[in-house]
Design a protein that fits this description.
Length: 191
């Protein structure tokens, strides 16, 4: 099967697939991005964010296109930890944020295309790309034993363990946005 992984840009931004859970929309999710002021169209806001950050770091998202028709069925978002206000909360009172550390904030694969190794491909692709960009540390925030994968932005811990990420610490706070089975996992990229 023909599979292509491409950087998100303004032209393909609208192709970011919607995850199965109706409460989430990767095109407008600002959960990981700081302020939600409720005034601006979130999709437009996020698009603007992508353009701005791409100018600084290179693209911070990728799409997985499936088959000859290049159907968009997967999405991954990543970036420097310093760019994600919500992510930084994970570290508070727990561990220092790695200097110049990057993270994967979200992975989503269309329900009909799951179990085919596509999430793994997306993550591997990002790791290769980040290595080229000189990144040394990549963190992610999976959940240990999720009952459903539809409410889990990064997916299950096993997904990252199979790609040799190591557990760093267990996030365990009373903050509303954090599940008590959230882990911080880390991979060091050899330069
Ligand atoms: C998590 C998710 C990305 C996995 O995608 P996927 O393409 O099916 O994953 P893969 O086929 O690459 O699986 C890789 C590994 O993940 C783990 N995994 C995948 N599905 C799993 C499941 N249902 N239960 C436990 N582990 C699972 C396994 O370790 C698997 O490796 P294996 O196939 O060798 O056993 C997908 O379930 C998803 O998109 N969930 C919704 C997440 C979401 O909505 N995010 C955005 C909104 S916040």
């Amino acid at each position: 099967m023909e599979i292509k992984i491409v950087d998100i840009n303004t032209k393909n931004f609208d192709l970011i697939p919607r995850p199965a859970d109706r409460r989430y929309n990767c095109q407008e999710c600002f959960f990981w991005m700081g302020k939600w002021d409720g005034k601006l169209d979130l999709v437009k806001q996020k698009k603007k964010w992508f353009v701005k950050k791409a100018g600084k770091y290179g693209s911070l998202g990728k799409l997985l296109l499936w088959g000859k028709r290049q159907k968009p069925v997967g999405y991954i978002q990543f970036g420097p930890i310093s760019e994600f206000e919500t992510v930084r909360i994970f570290y508070q009172d727990m561990a220092p944020i790695p200097r110049n550390g990057w993270c994967i904030t979200c992975v989503a694969v269309d329900t009909n295309y799951r179990g085919k190794g596509l999430a793994k491909r997306l993550i591997r692709n990002v790791l290769r790309d980040l290595k080229r960009r000189g990144v040394r540390t990549v963190d992610a925030y999976p959940v240990k034993k999720p009952k459903s994968l539809n409410q889990v932005p990064c997916g299950p811990t096993t997904l990252f363990k199979e790609l040799s990420f190591e557990s760093v610490f267990k996030v365990n706070t009373n903050r509303k946005i954090i599940r008590d089975d959230n882990l911080v996992v880390r991979k060091k990229l050899k330069q």
